[in-house]
Design goal:
Sodium/glucose cotransporter, two-stranded antiparallel sheet, mainly alpha, two-stranded antiparallel ribbon
Length: 503
């Protein structure tokens, strides 16, 4: 490893650990602070924290890799994500911030579900917690896989060593500093990612003679590269279902706990508009940079006759070839930032569910705040260990792991969160039934041995679409067939409506 690269990465690691120690001093005295930062996040930290925890290693590795292979047809994912994120900021974020505080100061999504529907049986909390634990463990493993690939392709280290370095640093600052550490490191990591995704594609285009020249060279290689409706990997037109499946990634935003928990933590709901403007600007520019990296990186590799074994490492390849070792270290830190920001968020959300929704609710109702924080920290370590174990299977691509977990959360939680925030007549039975049906639909769609013309169901339609629709239909049907909510539930909902109208 070049000395300059090593210095850059060392500075990055030290900075992340320093933030963790700072957060430890500021916000870990009780479970509410450890898991939600005491609801004190500024709009800037809220926006970049939500963005960085969302756009994990898949934005610097998965998206460029998909564009490298399939061309502009993969941009439908980005379009769907941008629309979904904007709607999430507009329709979910402010109302969820108000509702979770009204609903007995809920600090987790299962906590919100239970308080929203006054579920004294804890069944809704339990099912929601299981969904979080199962899908987030899978989701976390995707980030660890990205870390292993990064260290292997960049530094020549064994894949397994990369796994342990990645998870080790993340666990250290998450274990110590909790939610505030995760949010502040996400903010810094978001800034690093943003800068890197502007710098790399611009330098690649300059190497290719400018934007016009880069586009011409790309079209000479494959005239379908910039065609949104043709998959450039095989020059076959995208089907309508294929485009819908790619756009449907945007549906997932409404049910992602590691993203929407940021909205619950902003210090004042009136600042949500500022957070939305910052977050959407960051997201749009970053996604454009990621797509340009893959498109023009493919041209650069073709022109230079270089060898690239894994398309998902195109960002790493360009960083090492085109930049001074010190700058290359900064760019590699951007990938680590993307990976670590998401892993830390997922670890904390899973830990909060294990602590508040299972340990405190079912195993130790009299636990002190000190005991809860300790159990939360131990849960971070336990979930990380399972994620590393799963990540030893290096054959899974980052994008496929992310897509499965994204669909699971979007289909299980998304419709429930949306409807529960706006429709006061939604019932507990409807929420529970919808969550189970949504999650099971996704699992069946992915793993059931059903094929059409020799292809799996997922190859025709992204599993979030049938899962989301089935959940939504279940909610409305079951709500109509079960007794309307009690007056105190309606009263809380009306109080939220009044507060929203006053904003």
């Amino acid at each position: 490893m070049e000395t300059g690269t090593l210095i850059s990465l060392s500075i990055y690691f030290i900075a992340m650990l320093a933030i963790g120690f700072y957060a430890f001093k500021r916000s870990t005295s009780d479970l509410g602070e450890y898991m939600l930062g005491g609801r004190k996040l500024s709009p800037g930290v809220t926006a970049l924290s939500a963005g960085a925890s969302d756009m994990s290693g898949w934005m610097l590795m998965g998206v460029p890799g998909a564009m490298y292979v399939s061309g502009a047809s993969s941009a439908w994912i980005a379009i769907g994500l941008i629309v979904g994120a904007f709607c999430n900021y507009l329709y979910v974020a402010p109302r969820l911030r108000v509702y979770t505080e009204q609903a007995n100061n809920a600090i987790t999504i299962p906590d919100y579900f239970e308080n929203r529907f006054h579920d004294h049986t804890h069944s809704l909390r339990m099912v929601a917690s299981l969904v979080i634990i199962v899908f987030f463990t899978l989701y976390t493993s995707s980030g660890v896989v990205a870390g292993g690939k990064l260290f292997e392709s960049s530094f020549g280290l064994p894949y397994e060593t990369g796994l342990y370095i990645t998870i080790g640093v993340v666990v250290a600052y998450t274990f110590v500093g909790g939610f505030l550490a995760v949010s502040l490191t996400d903010f810094v990591q978001g800034c690093i990612m943003f800068t890197a995704l502007i710098l790399v594609p611009i330098v690649v285009m300059m190497e290719l003679g400018g934007l016009t020249s880069a586009i011409e060279l790309s079209n000479n290689i494959n005239p379908n590269t910039f065609n949104l409706f043709i998959d450039a990997s095989n020059n076959i037109p995208l089907s309508t279902l294929g485009i819908i499946s790619l756009l449907a990634w945007g549906l997932g935003y409404f049910g992602q706990p590691h993203i929407i928990v940021r909205f619950m933590a902003i210090r004042n709901v009136s600042e949500m508009k500022t957070a939305r403007r910052i977050g959407m600007s960051w997201m749009i520019i970053s996604l454009i940079g990621a797509m340009a990296t893959g498109l023009f990186g493919a041209v650069y590799v073709n022109n230079t006759q270089a060898e690239l074994a894994d398309p998902e490492t195109i960002f790493v390849f360009l960083s090492q070839i085109l930049f001074h070792p010190f700058i290359a270290g900064f760019l590699l830190a951007a990938i680590l930032a993307a990976i670590m920001s998401t892993i830390s968020s997922q670890l904390l959300v899973t830990s909060s569910s294990l602590t508040a929704d299972i340990y405190q609710t079912f195993l130790n109702k009299q636990a002190t705040q000190k005991q809860l924080v300790l159990f939360g920290r131990l849960s971070v370590v336990a979930v990380a260990a399972v994620a590393v174990y799963l990540a030893h299977d290096r054959e899974s691509t980052i994008l496929s792991l992310v897509s499965n977990a994204w669909a699971g959360f979007g289909a299980a939680f998304g419709p429930i969160i949306l409807v529960s925030l706006y429709w006061r007549n939604m019932t507990l039975a409807a929420a529970l039934s919808g969550m189970i049906i949504g999650a099971l639909t996704v699992l069946v769609w992915i793993y059931a041995p059903f094929e059409i013309a020799g292809k799996s169901l997922s190859s025709y339609m992204y599993e979030i679409v049938p899962g989301f629709i089935m959940n939504l239909c279940t909610i409305f049907v079951v709500s109509k067939l079960t007794p309307i909510p009690k007056k105190d539930i309606v009263r809380t909902h009306d109080a939220v409506e009044e507060k929203m109208q006053a904003l």
